Hints:
Layout: H1 3-30, E1 32-46, E2 49-52, E3 58-64, E4 69-75, E5 79-85, E6 91-101, E7 105-109, E8 115-132, E9 140-160, E10 171-176, E11 185-188, H2 197-208, E12 215-223, E13 242-243, H3 256-265
Parallel strand pairs: 9-13
Antiparallel strand pairs: 1-2, 1-3, 1-12, 3-4, 4-7, 5-6, 6-8, 7-8, 8-9, 9-10, 9-11, 10-12
Amino acid sequence: MSTGGRTAAKITGVAAAAGLVFGMMGPAFAASQVVEYRLDSGSVTINETTYALPDSTGIEGTWDDATGDFTGVFRSSAVPSQQAVTSPVVGTIDLTTEFVGTTDVTGTIDPATGDGSLGLTMDVVITLQSLSTAPDVPPVILDQVCTIANVPVSYSVTATGLGADSEIFTNLALTAAPFAAPAATCVAGPAGNPALTPIIQENINTTVGLPTQDTASVLSFVAGAIPPPPPSTTTTTGVTTTTASDLKNCDDFQYRDEAQAVLDADRTDPNQLDGDGNGQACENLPVRPAPAVTATVRFTG
């Protein structure tokens, strides 16, 4: 064999050995795939209330294409909405609802079948911003944050779209088993009135029906970048906004007994109807007049 032939044979042998080593070691190094899935559609239902998740919802993390192990982070953003109320006043509350992952999303997705399970713990954060009672009345700042905390959710997963042109599944369909949602706990923000917090907390739990296990969630994800949340907007007007400590004034009542009934309903007096603290509301108002009595006199003789 010529020198050139022996050299070529050595090169071929080295290349073959390298190929064998790479084939043995390559999958071990390439098993962990970086993944990012954005929400295609999805919602969470607690009793009869269904919360649609925003487009800026998704999961990003890693998936091991050899073992199927999945670890990721759940991302979402607040969704604004309005809620009509009839007690203690009639109006509309502006609020936001956000699902916040408090633990990693962990589980497995079988590389061969696409079947698996994922789980996480989340908080449902409901922020009550303001209360509007009439178009020509300034909104009342509420600034109350109510949290349904430590909600554990387990999803069954069906993953599809893994093919010759893809190193990861391109679609994930998640269906949750019923999960326990505890009662919400509310706290007043810097501009909120703590005296209203117990009332709001009771109303939230009654309205949503907490605690409960009558729950469900169905999520559909596609591979792709998670959109950023929409920018928050702030509207500034020339109207002075009243605080939640001044829902009613003495001028709102005709007679003293009407104001007294409101004071008796909340002795913390958030409306400041009892200026001197003697337990009597709006003492400048007139007392309701007694109803007229009509008597029929019959003469007999």
